[in-house]
Amino acid sequence: MVSAPLAPLALLDTDSLISAEDRAIRDTVRSFVDDRLRPEIADWYETGEVPVRELALEFGKLGLLGMKLEGYGCAGTSATAYGLACMELEAGDSGLRSIASVQSSLAMQAIYAHGSEEQKDAWLPRMATGEAIGCFGLTEPDFGSNPGGMRTRARQDAGGDWVLTGNKMWITNGSVADVAVVWAQTEDKVRGFVVPTDTAGFSATTIKHKMSLRASVTSELAMDDVRLPADAVLPHARGLAGPLSCLTEARFGIIFGSIGAARDCLETTIAYAREREIFDKQLAAYQLTQAKLADMTVELGKGMLLALHLGRLKDAGHVEPAAISIGKLNNTREALAIARECRTVLGAAGITLDYPLMRHANNLESVLTYEGTSEVHQLVIGQAVTGASAFR
């Protein structure tokens, strides 16, 4: 017996859990991804070159940049709508979602939450339109999971100017950015600085030879006695709580984004299995194939329900950072497992760029470990439920 197939998420009717306004935003982004990004993404991934500036302007016209922030030309949407936009962008490619989420949840969020009114007015309207691109300099070559050990230093001289020295690594948008939010050790704890990238002594080098996130610009930042005015410091952030709060915002988008990549893999695989014949029988009709597809459908549905629940909590204003860690840990881990399993169903065809599976799998290897590795999130959750820190 053959019946009309249901989309994997339709089995749980997850659309009924999304408001009409948020669905409309999601559908707009999905159409943009299908019409504008999908025809180009395989070439961008293969060449390792992506037109970030052009895409930033297009993202800005859609209202995707800083979309859940209020004022300064930002759309002021719900957190759930932002998550759904991330899901659709990452269904296209994780690198494309990273362009928007680093701009929005890291660079713009840092200025919005911790900056002065002058800093907000100077940067946020142009960042919202995509005319100005931002990056977020926290990670260093020797300090990823332990940002408190950073070696970048900022000292204030007698005239009040700040002098910034150090290096940052694995910085998305770094070598195309107009402004960098750079975190540094000072005599008064870790502080954030708004650094125009044309400042003398600042340089950014694009990292090549990546096997993951190839449709995204990743850079190393170098600051050699970069002199900044006294008002370059973010006035409302002292200590690691400032940058870590921004990371929590970025992790929220990843919870949804990873589900987008997994959904794209599973839908592609189901369509392939329905068309492919093996031993004179539809591949989708074999029990082993259906077992794989069923297990992946279950995990995809669970991940989507988790994302929507966390979106509701965030919109209500009482989501715990450890809950965000649950979502990031679970959804990235399961999305990667789905991408890998989907590849097995397609066999050799699954390793080509004719299908998105290996591309998504390679990207998700990075998504699994950035914005906090799986191990870091396990320890965050462990500390929440035991009250004991295992970080040291």
Protein described:
- Its cofactor is FAD.
- This is Glutaryl-CoA dehydrogenase.
- Residues 238-385 form the Acyl-CoA dehydrogenase/oxidase C-terminal domain.
- Residues 20-131 form the Acyl-CoA dehydrogenase/oxidase N-terminal domain.
- The structure is a single chain.
- The chain is α+β, with helices and mostly antiparallel strands and 392 residues long.
- It has three domains: 8-129, Butyryl-Coa Dehydrogenase, subunit A, domain 1, CATH 1.10.540; 134-232, Beta Barrel (Butyryl-CoA Dehydrogenase, subunit A, domain 2), CATH 2.40.110; 241-386, Butyryl-CoA Dehydrogenase, subunit A, domain 3, CATH 1.20.140.
- The protein is built from ten helices and nine strands.
- The protein has a four-stranded antiparallel β-sheet, covered by helices on one side.
- The radius of gyration is 21 Å and the shape is globular.
- It starts with 19 loop residues before the first helix and ends in a 6-residue tail after the last helix.
What attributes characterize this protein structure?
392 residues; alpha+beta; Butyryl-CoA Dehydrogenase, subunit A, domain 2; Butyryl-CoA Dehydrogenase, subunit A, domain 3; 3 domains; 4-stranded antiparallel sheet; 3-stranded mixed sheet; 52% helix; 14% strand; Glutaryl-CoA_DH_mitochondrial; AcylCoA_DH/oxidase_NM_dom_sf; FAD
Summary of the model, kept short:
The chain has 392 residues and is of the alpha+beta class.
